[in-house]
């Protein structure tokens, strides 16, 4: 088993908790209150900007050109995701320029940026992988029985798409190529998964 898969399997409890979270389930059936989704969109846009910066830092630290190229390509994926959020923001009346990060958002972005600046690319890839793997997992599950025609269908379409799955696999390859299977990598991955769960919870109780 690859390290990226081992890490994911070790954290299936949190993956399942996110899938079963009322915020995600309300996206699945279209019943989520617009105010909750609007809050989420603003917070996620703030998060994604930090995510793109962490990728860029890791790219600069990559020990070879292949790693640099993959990290750089992943930045492009985040920029495309941010364009989607800009369309959401316009639709839901969110001014992304005035978003103030909540505690859960700030805790997650501070962790990612501190890891990117202070750790090697293997640890950084392990810190960033849960976000991609989790959203691919959620998209796949929510689309499994067909996507209902409701206001959040685009969200499910995006994260269940082949393009997003491919980006996820690229990040897995970085974990497998550069990370070492040790306690720090496992605890880093676990912490990021906890941040993902708390991110959904914050958007649910906003």
Give a verbal description of the structure.
With 206 residues, the chain is an all-alpha fold. The chain is built from ten helices and no strands. The termini are far apart.
Topology:
Elements: H1 3-10, H2 12-20, H3 22-29, H4 34-61, H5 65-92, H6 103-118, H7 121-143, H8 153-160, H9 162-178, H10 183-205
CATH superfamily: Heme oxygenase-like
- Give the overall average pLDDT: 94
Percent of residues in β-strands:
under 5%
Give the biggest sheet.
none
Determine the fraction of residues in helical runs and give it as a percent range.
Answer: over 70%
Return the CATH topology.
Heme Oxygenase, Chain A
**Pairing-aware structural class of the strands and helices?**
mainly alpha
Sum up the overall morphology in one term.
globular
Count of β-strands? 0
Q: Radius of gyration in whole Å, from Cα? A: 16 Å
Under CATH at level 1, the class stands as Mainly Alpha
Overall domain count: 1
Give the helices and strands as they follow along the chain.
Answer: HHHHHHHHHH
Low-confidence stretches: none
Number of helical elements = 10
């Amino acid at each position: 088993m690859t390290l990226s898969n081992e890490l994911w399997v070790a954290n299936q409890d949190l993956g399942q908790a996110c899938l079963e979270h009322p915020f995600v389930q309300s996206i699945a059936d279209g019943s989520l209150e617009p105010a909750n989704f609007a809050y989420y969109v603003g917070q996620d846009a703030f998060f994604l900007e930090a995510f793109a910066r962490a990728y860029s830092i890791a790219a600069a630290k990559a020990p070879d050109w292949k790693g640099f190229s993959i990290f750089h390509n992943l930045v492009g994926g985040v920029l495309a995701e941010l364009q989607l959020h800009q369309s959401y923001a316009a639709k839901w009346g969110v001014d992304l320029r005035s978003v103030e990060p909540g505690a859960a958002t700030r805790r997650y972005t501070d962790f990612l940026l501190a890891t990117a600046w202070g750790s090697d690319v293997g640890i950084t890839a392990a810190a960033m992988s849960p976000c991609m793997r989790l959203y691919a997992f959620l998209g796949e599950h929510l689309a499994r029985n067909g996507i209902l025609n409701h206001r959040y269908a685009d969200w499910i379409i995006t994260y269940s798409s082949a393009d997003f799955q491919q980006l996820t696999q690229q990040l897995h390859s970085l974990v497998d190529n550069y990370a070492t299977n040790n306690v720090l990598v496992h605890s880093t991955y676990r912490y990021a998964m906890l941040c993902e769960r708390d991110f959904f919870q914050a958007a649910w109780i906003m």
